Amino acid sequence: MTNILIELSRYLIIIAIAVYTYKGFVIFRITDEKEKENILRVQNHLMFAIHFMAYLILFLSTNQIEIVFFYLLQVVFLSAVIALYRVIYPRSSKLLINHMCMLLSISFIILTRLSYTKSIKQFKIVIVSMVITMLIPYLFKKIKFLDRLGFVYAGIGIGLLGLVAVAGSISYGAKLSFSFAGVSLQPSEFIKITYVFFVAALLSKSQELKQLLIVTALAALHVLILVASKDLGGALIYFITYAFMLYVATKEYLYLTGGLLSGAIAAFIGYRLFSHVRVRVIAWKDPFSVIENEGYQLSQSLFAIGTGGWFGMGLYQGIPNTIPVVDQDFIFSAIVEELGGLFGLCVILICISCFVMFMNVAMQAKERFFRMVALGIALMYGFQVFLTIGGVTKFIPLTGVTLPLVSYGGSSVLSTLIMFAIIQGLYILKQEEDEKVEKIKADAARKTKQAAKKRKQQQESK
Amino acid sequence: MLQERQNRQLKKENNSKNRNNKELSIVAYIFVGLFVLLMGYFVYFNIVKSPSIINSSYNTRQDLFAKKVIRGKIVSSDGKILAQTVVSEDGTESREYPYDNMYAHVVGYASKGKAGLESLMNFNLLTSNAPLMERIIKEFKGVKNTGDNVVTTLDSKLQETAYKALGSNNGAVVVMEADTGRILAMVSKPDYNPNDIDTIWDSLVATDNTEDSSLLNRATQGKYPPGSTFKILTLMEYIRENPDYENYTYECSGKIVIDDSTINCYHNTVHGTEDLYQSFAKSCNSSFANIGLQLNINSLSKLCNEFLFNSALPYSMVYNKSSFTLTNKAETYDIMQTMIGQGETLVSPLHMALITQTIANNGVMMKPYLVDHTENYDGKVVKKYKDSAYDTIISEKEAAILKDFMQNVVENGTATKLSGQSYTVAGKTGSAEYGNVKGQSHAWFVGFSPVEDSKIVVSIVVEEAGAGSEYAVPIAKKIFDAYYN
After folding, report:
1. What's chain A's average pLDDT?
2. Exposure string (b/e) for A261-291, b if CB count within 10 Å is 16 or more?
3. Domain of B261: which CATH number?
4. Of A318, A322, A386, the CB nearest to B38
């Protein structure tokens, strides 16, 4: 009986997430509000169904009663997030909330599978982060001087990154984090946000050459400190984000191509200079030739993805824990190994859907600063997803970054939730403005009508 | 008026927004494009790359399938069971090898890290292609499915003949089909009984010197000096550089002395006046040292590399690369030694078989392979492995000349034990000295039959036996006899 349930739910989970993902794209073409609302509800049901089936398997495989309680807590949490957003911010993007919850629930499932204790830790951090970030859309409406603090953001970013580079603790060969009072913080995750704000604020103010030079120098300083800390993935994300933000702000193709070209040259120099860069490239070219050392991680990841196939081995049927750092950089491999390649493709599509939503918000925003902020966040998010999934599948060399919202790690999840909340803030702002405009239009139309009536009356009276 | 201006303002804003969005759209398209590429790659990986990657013997995940599938059988091309899993009444499984030591290295073992075909075909053996409904029903019942069988290219008669012919000697035999690269037999000694692998494992790996280990498959991993069998390549190079090779003559006095360096003929035999055919047939060391000193070493080195010295062989199981390291800066003595197959050159029996096969197959090297097809448990073919050419190494004309020389070895030279049979044979013997002890040698024979339209290739090395003509040629004869009867 248990066996039938496990086998059956393996396929049902894939069908459910495929439908969920499909709906996530269909909704972009639908204008009717009622229909939209319907789709969003269906998505919620599907998410809870996947969550239920997965935890059923987790419970049946481990027979630990704690998992049932843990599951129930998660249901309460996810329902609360969906409900609270609807109540507090009725104009928020429901699709983005659904995606956020979907990715979080996938994270809970796979982390519980990998390590129960870690998943509990992560769950606590997610709750706290969610409570904090729920305030952000409100603050965004109230605080009016965010676009005037460009140099302050830059100062904070460079200062903190510098501090980590000098005094941070080393993990996996890179200086990334601070530890105090038992909590380990990874400032580069949060500096992503100040960095986007700094670039957005300064570039939306002026595009004169002098300004561009100053901003470029400050951005380059961020990137160089990250390179010095051996955080290659971070450096790359910061660099790409800047190159594209500069392009959008100035509308100059030359800056983009020149920027990317100089980035390529810098990467080549880095390859020649640093052995840890060369190692990554060697492991990427042929991980099996160096399987005992540098290629071990990637080989294990490819074995996991390949052996999982399209339908996955089923939860607890694989051995994802043989991949080093599986709960962070290699979470996608674990997902594909046990939940299947089709599930993995859906995860990529959901991330793309989020990226498209972010870009939409950027396009809709009226103020330059807001446009640039939304763009910067979209770039940060999109490129990080690309780097991590491309890395673990051997599409591109490994850079050691996490899958936002899904990977284990408090700093990462908090910083991503902040980004989602900022986008919600911008989305809500835009919705409210639209309503105002609608009102003005309606007023104007009414007035024209009245005036015409008046004229007619006057003519008639003549 | 006021309203019109307001309307115009709105319109203008919309227009400017559309214009501003051009760059944002481009950025969005670039990134969505990147994601599409990523997904395309992911699909490609799963369909095209994944099967060979998960087949890697490093992939410990394969063993997870053992929980759901009963390991399939390995059988010879004539249907003899070489390995099978027996399930006892209480459900415990054991792997059985009915022929004990005979197929030890080529079939390998399935526990203790796996080796041989058990390792290469692990994933196929643990995959069930039983009828779909049957599989689904069993899966839901929680009953194990039956894994696929691997049908090898091995011929039980030839394997048995080769195994017995090698007797108590150490060494290796490779028998291959000349025009396909199918491996018909592969024997290596010393050997072990794979049925006892778990109990004898500790003593097998305890030997400090891995060269002596019974686990080593000498047919593919053994690194032997090629001895006089290398003269095939020296000869090829000489013929290429000297189109008038038929006019070559040499006066053999049993040894050659140049710059204080001496090369002796085997047992110091004095061969007298000889042409190139006789030098090769009698395997005259002095004459070949003399030839070697005239050769362009760079181009000989190029020829050797084309024959896959110093590089990977087109073979998917464990093997060692052969090495040829002579350069044009080498000392006279080293050059002379290398030309007669001594010196630094090392080669595996499989590689010698490939070189011989190339000549037998008119210059085209075939990829050697051991698996004919896989089939599900009731005999439905799942995947057929076809023969494929690796490359054309020498021209058809050159191959014909070499065949002629090699047939002369059998008719008038060191391998006359093979002449006068119902079948024709061409080949080359070798007595490869090893280590520093003079006079002790490994016996070599490489050859093929029949000379025209060749069918079968053998490569034989008998360790520490003595002359190839006395110890390796008789083994070849037994194999050819078995093949033709």
Report:
1. 90
2. eebeebbeeeeeeeeebebbebbbeebeebb
3. 3.40.710.10
4. A386
